[in-house]
Each structure stands twice: as structure tokens, then as C-alpha cells.
Amino acid sequence: MKTTPLWPDTAKMPKFARLGKDLKVDVIVIGGGITGITAAYLLRKAGASVALLERGRLVSGETAHTTAHLTYVTDTRLSDLVQRFGHNHAQATWDAGLAAVRQIHQIVDDEQIDCEFRWVPGYLHALPRKGREEAPSLQEDARLAGELGFDAIYIDEVPLMRVPGVAFADQAKFNPAKYLRGLLRVLRKEGCHVFEKSEASSIEIDPPTVQANDHTVRGKYIVIATHVPLQGATNTASAALFQTKLASYNTYAIGANIQPDILPDASFWDTGSPYFYLRIDRYRDHDYAILGGADHKTGQARDPQKHYERVEKRLRQIFPKITIDHWWSGQVVETNDGLPYIGEIVPRQFIATGFSGNGMTFGTLGAMMACDAFAGRRNPWSSLFDVHRKTLFGGTWNYLKENKDYPYYMLKQSLEKPGANSLRAVARGEGKVILLDGKKMAAYRDPQGKVSVKSAVCPHMGCIVRWNGVEKTWDCPCHGSRFMATGEVMAGPAEAPLSDPKEGLFAV
């Protein structure tokens, strides 16, 4: 049995040289985990020159110690988020996570990275023997999720766990080592400057400068993508004050082969505090389970072995016959209000931290927001996750109005999966956005069975229309344009109908 994380055994990382000369680039990224590598990728794809500095080996820090759940469901229960911050802030937090998961999926597709990415359901479930008493709170979470636009339903019996819970669609999982290996290969091909064993020994901001290996890297912007932010160009007092907003916790994981069975390819987490979180991976000749949990504040466990034993005991309760081959611990950073800190801590110095149990998701989001910040673009979540925020109480923030609808929906919908990829998925009298020949189409089947296919792109400003099943119309969520089921304009601001593909009518 190995006392190291599973992922490094599954993918060998490419090697990069130490920084050995002075360099001048647009952006300096410090940290070679998911946040730093993704930020370097997005910035390079946007045309910026980038230097990525990692003090050790790439993908050797906390990113390697993850269990790699990709979820927009936060550690803080949705009902608690709503009560604490209001509906708008809660919706924005989950939307941010969903956009990040879809960003990962888009990168996987764009770069054809074989990293076992799968869309799977995720289940929040009651603790063993507490199903009946926890059912009302789970029902409330499902109701709130649906109210805020997320695909979630309450179920009386979660698969495998046999207790009540909430089933969330649009969750995912992947192999983070294979994914980041793919990104690093792209960075090498794209001419990005990537350096290992190059620890940032000092950081200045006027101009943005990083010292490493007795060499100087100068840039226009710095992204600090370390697990806990380096002090950087902030003064000692303000850095110490910021650190008081963060708390580190150890978490434990066990990986084991389990007997092949009819098991859901899914993710699970319970309502405990701390909670257990499980992923199941199904392969051709075996199934594999990773269970994590038994968290405690870093440095406050007298006997860490007992925490591994708690995880193993719970895993054997779920799967009595297992063969454990890996066990390891990781660290998560919690914030004082449950939301991550992502943004500029001083001008031209960007940080991202406090991801709690959503490191893969919020790490990717941090990279997306860093790219926007460097480019001077407005990001829908910059205020929500502001590093200098005092409080989110009051409930006066209008999420959609604050972001003027269009930027928010364009970001969300550009990454949105179509409902199907076949006209056969469209029932009589119904419409559905489907993917045909790589393009999103608005398909409608009339009561007689004739199918009309139009572009799903609103001609006004490029948003993706949605099917209104009550009115039998295509509605644009960005600026309110409406179209008949067969694409004709009903209401502006759009002036042109939904456009025709090569063939507009099908009898399928």
C-alpha cells in the first residue's frame, strides 16, 4: 500500500528547466498547480506572453492530493448560503462553480486531452440512520436549487447509500494529473516560459518583478497561484491581517479497488461536519473508489492514524470487500465566510485562495478571473469573491442587473452543454437546443412530427436562446428577444429571425 496520492502514479509530468536567465513577459504566474497552470494556459491562448514559476516539481503540491471532484455544490449547504448571503449571492456562487467545470470540459474538448473527464450526477445524502430527520432540510436544498436554476431533485433513496438525498446534474470528475499534463504539453508547444525548481524569493509591484534563482523576471502583471498566497508586494501588517481570514484543515483519502458491480459512475458526499466524500470510477476490468474525509484543523490532531482509520471504517461500511492501494492526506484552506478570495490584493497582483473542498473548481475559476483581470474585462464574480470584501449581508445586490445580463449569460451559455445531439430527442410539440455538426441548433417538432431546425444563436448579440415550453417560443435570456417555435421574430430587440442552417426542415 502506498502512502502517496494516486494521481502521480497515473501520469508522468513533462520536465522543465530551472529559471537560468533574466526574462521579460506580460504576466508572471507563481505556482504550478491547477490554478497556475490553467491561468498560464488561458493567458497564453489570449495572446499574452507568460512565465510560470514553480518552486518544486509541477503538479506536486495540493493539486496532486485532491480527490478531483468537479462540482459547483459548495461545502456550505445551499440553504445556509441563502440564509447567510441572500438568493443572488448564493446563485452567483454556484454559477461560478458551474462555469468553471464547463471551462474544464471546453479545454478538454479543445485540446483533445485524454483525462477520463466524465459528466456524472452528484448526490448529497443524509448520514446513516438519520434519513428521516434530515429529509426536510434536503428537500429544502433541492427546492432552493431548482428555484435558482440548477438541475436538482430530492430523492427518497440515494443509490448505494439507501438514505434520502439530493441528486445534482452537471457534476463531473477527471484525472487531474492527466489533465494538467495535457495543458503543460500545450504550454510547451505554445512557447510559454515554464520553469521548475524556481522559487520566487521576492516580489515587487512597481514594476511587477519576481526574483528567482538569482534571476529577474519582469512583467506587467503577477498572478500568485500558490495554495496559501505569498506575501508578495503587500506589507507585513496587511499580509498578516489577510492570513487571519484563512484557516487550514487536513483531510484524508483512501483509494481502493472494489469488486465490479452495478454501481453508479457518480460522486457522493454526506451531510456530516466534517463530511465524507466518495467518487466511484468504473473501468473495463475493475471498479475503483476514493473516499475522503475526517478533516481536522492543521496541527490539531494528536494521532493522524486515527483519522485514516475513520475513513477506512466508513469505506468498508459501504464496500465490505476492498483492496486498499493508496492512502494520503491533503490540505484545504477555509475562509471566514465560506467563499473563496479571488482578485487583486494590490494593483497588478492577483491572488486566489480559500477554495475549501472545491479546489479543482474554484482553482479553475481563479485562473479564469485572473485572465479577465489582466485583460481589463469585467467578470461577473469579481465583487462576490473580492479579496477586500467586508460583508455580503444585506441582500441588495442584483446579480443579473449588476452584470448587465449579457456578460453573465454569454459566459454561462458559451460553456453550456446542449440538451442532446440528435433530433430524435425532440418530442412532438416540444423544442430543444441540440448539437448538430458541432453547432447549437434550436430544434422544434410540431404536433404532426415535422421538425424545424434553426440556429440557436440570437441574432441580436449572440446569446443562446432557450425553449419556453409554456408559450412554445424561443426566448433569449440576455435581452429578452422572443421567437416563434419556427424561428420568426415575435419581440425585439432582435430584428432578424433565427437563421437557417443548410437545411431548415426535416421529417424525422
Automatic annotation (TrEMBL):
Listed GO CC annotations: cytoplasm; membrane
Pfam families named in the record: DAO, Rieske
InterPro entries xref list: FAD-dep_OxRdtase, FAD/NAD-bd_sf, Rieske_2Fe-2S, Rieske_2Fe-2S_sf, Rieske_Fe-S_prot_C, YhfW_C
Keywords linked to the UniProt accession: 2Fe-2S, Disulfide bond, Iron, Iron-sulfur, Metal-binding
Entries under PROSITE patterns matching the protein: RIESKE
GO molecular function (one): metal ion binding
Residues in Rieske domain copies: 408-498
Protein name: FAD dependent oxidoreductase
